[in-house]
Amino acid sequence: MKSELIRVIIVDDHPVVTRGLAAVIKAFDEDLCLIGEASSGEEAITLCEKAQPDVVLMDLLMPGMGGIEAIRTIRERWPCMYVIALTSFGEKEMVKEAIKAGAISYLLKNVSAQELVKTIHEAVSGKSNLSPEIAELLIQDIRKPPQKEYGLSSREQEVLKLMVSGLSNDAIANRLVISRSTVKFHVSNILSKLGTASRTEAVSLAIRNHLVN
Amino acid sequence: MSRSKERYSINTTRMITGPKEQGLDAIKKYEAQIRELNKHIEREICHRKKAKDELVLIKNKYRQLLDNIPCIIAIVDNKGNISSWNRYAQNIFGYRASDITGKNITLLNGSDPHFPQLLNEPENGVNNMRTTPFYDSWEGEAFKANGQPLWIEWSIARPESKNASEGIICIGIDRTTKKRIEEQAIQDTEDRAITHERTRLARELHDAVSQTIFSVSLIAEVVPLLWERDQEEGRRRLREIGQLTRGALAEMRTLLMELRPSALAKASISELISQLALAVNSRTLIEIEVAAEQCILPVDIKLALYRITQEALNNVVKHSRANHAKITLSCSAEQVELRISDNGQGFNMNEISDSSLGMRIIHERAEGIGADLEIKSQHGCGTDIIVRLNNASREVSA
After folding, report:
1. Beta strands B287-292 and B82-85: pairing type?
2. Domain end among B226, B259, B292
């Protein structure tokens, strides 16, 4: 028994990518049907409303509202539509944001046509898929010991790193080319943010909690 | 002195020629004169003692000042040999006064051209300095006794008289921290520029080459499947792969040229324009027609026309919604004309934002080579950008 066609739309601001993706969908037209193309998040929402696709292939970095915001809107308005994020970028934060926004799968733009088609099929059954690099990234992130957020500024992190290396205030001032009083100011902020009473306690906490590399 | 001798001298002639009383009077007078003379001598001794004490006091104050002033102070003779060295200099350089006295000041940094020039060359140095009392100053590198580098701002206090024993005062201020901060700021600016350029290239690679190659890989993967079903479709997709690959290659060549400005300068303007057009076409599928004559132009003009074309095409891609564009370059002995036209949505000339970076670059580039710029556009009627340059073929470096 022939199953129903999966209706797909492509959202990408690079026409050349849309061309390649369209070729793939066409090659698998026994199961897949391309019903529209959009080049921005805003266009995608309008198209979804009009065409009511089953699956949206969504680029993330696009002019205008961008892919993540578009995923969020699509999932809020049409919870039955499945959105697959398809991007060149595999930064942890972006992956997390896309998944939080409601992307069912996250693929990098090195995915094979076969894997892409498989992901589209799985999406309509509610199954997720991640590019191997993304899966690895998330596993590493989960394995990492939990870190309390102390809200240190990048300069304070720099100073803390030098404190952990055993440098005195004078040596830190010299290294960072700032005055001794500025270093003292940063050290006092660090102690207060870490909730420690002394320099030694702060250094020990920083080492224990991997606050510096 | 001769006047005082006359005033206090004793008249011995009257003593031996007068009578007894007169003799006694003369002795009394003589004694009075001696007393007066003694008083003066005592006063003078007192003055001299006082002056000597004051001199000692001044010397001590001078030494105190010399040792406590936060400046390097070295007194040198007319050959640059150090005769005095204050405590601050000792702390900064790590040479004790006893070690450095008698050594030449060029020991602090032999490669600093100022000291030899001022001290060792009689025609430019000390001899002239002595006739013109004022301060000379410069900044230069110097080295501590342990070899650590310093950055010193030097001032030379030239003596006011020609008395060689006065010495020349070299005053130095330690500017090492200031210099380090300045160097750090320059380094930061360079780093920012490098990061900016890397980001731009990464963005270009992402926007152009990687997208095209991804697309090519997908099409190549499905070609066998399509070929089995429909050979004509298979052939069409293979041609598409060829076209996309050539486009990616053009993008790569453009990026490589951006990385090597000398290559950009060597390529001909028609080659550069054709490459840009091919790259943009492959990336965006906008049909771009090129009619560029072989013009031999000076490098600055060629680069300016290239950048204008690049920005104009960026605008076509980003804003025009055009599906066709044409680039024409024509050259004659009198005039070069570059025209970039598209069939896109156009814009209202009064609404164009001054802050539009692309348009600003086009204006600046045209202005930079003294070309006339004409922009014609209207809603729904596309855009024409025309650059006209008279007498462009001055010095030719193709």
Report:
1. unpaired
2. B259
Q: What is the pLDDT of residues A110-123, one digit of tens each?
A: 999 999 999 999 99
Model pLDDT for residues B223-242, shown as the tens digit of each residue: 999 999 999 999 999 999 99
Buried b / exposed e along B344-378 (16+ C-beta atoms within 10 A): bbbbeeeeeeeeeebbebbbebbeebebebebebe
Does the CB of B215 have a partner CB in chain A at under 8 Å? Answer: yes
Please state, in angstroms and rounded to a whole number, the distance separating the CA atoms of residues B202 and B178. Answer: 35
Measured CA to CA in angstroms, residue A183 lies from A155, A169, A200, B41 at distances of 10, 6, 16, 67
Residues B29 and B142 in one domain: no
In eight-state DSSP terms, residue A40 is: S
Does A149 reside within a domain?
A: no
Between CA B365 and CA B308 the distance in angstroms is 7
B240 contacts on A by Cβ (under 8 Å): 19, 23
B287-292/B324-331 β-pairing: parallel
User: CATH number for the domain including B355?
Assistant: 3.30.565.10
Q: Are residues A11 and A114 in the same domain?
A: yes
pLDDT (tens, 9 = 90+) of chain B, 398 residues, equals 444 444 555 555 555 556 788 888 889 999 999 999 999 999 999 999 999 999 999 999 988 888 888 899 988 887 788 988 899 999 999 999 888 999 888 888 767 777 766 665 444 444 444 444 445 778 888 889 888 889 999 888 766 665 556 678 888 999 998 888 888 888 888 877 877 777 777 777 777 788 999 999 999 999 999 999 999 999 999 999 998 998 888 888 888 887 787 888 888 899 999 989 988 888 788 999 999 988 888 888 999 999 999 999 988 988 888 999 999 999 888 899 999 999 998 887 777 665 577 788 899 899 999 999 999 988 888 999 999 998 765 444 33
Residue A20, chain B, CB below 8 Å: the answer is yes
Number of domains within chain A: 2
ipTM surpassing 0.85? no
Determine contact: B315 vs chain A, CB below 8 A: no
Query: What does the buried/exposed string (b/e) look like for A78-103 if buried means 16 or more CB atoms within 10 Å of the residue's CB?
Result: beebbbbbbbbebeeebbebbbebbb
| Cross-chain residue pair B285–A17, CB shorter than 8 Å | no
Q: Do B226 and A110 touch (CB under 8 A)?
A: no
Q: Is residue B181 part of a domain?
A: no
Nearest to B181 among A21, A113, A177 (CB): A177
User: In the beta sheet, which residues pair with residue B387?
Assistant: B338, B373
Query: Given A143, A166, A183, which residue is the final one in a domain?
Result: A143
Which of A16, A88, A177 is closest, CB to CB, to B283?
A: A16
Query: Where in the sequence is the domain holding B287, given as residue range(s)?
Result: 267-398
The answer to whether A16 contacts B282, with C-beta atoms less than 8 Å apart, is: yes
> For residue B55, is it within any domain?
yes
A49 and A117 in one domain? yes
Please name which of B180, B182, B136, B143 lies closest in space to residue B159, comparing C-alpha atoms: B136
Q: Which residue among A16, A26, A114 sits closest to B244, beta carbon to beta carbon? A: A16
Kindly report the pTM of this predicted structure.
0.60
Q: How far is B237 from chain A, CA to nearest CA, in Å?
A: 8
Nearest C-alpha in A relative to B227: A27
Q: What is the CATH number of the domain that holds B164?
A: 3.30.450.20
B221 and A15 in contact by Cβ < 8 A?
A: no
In a shared domain, residues A86 and A179: no
Residue A19 structural domain: 6-143
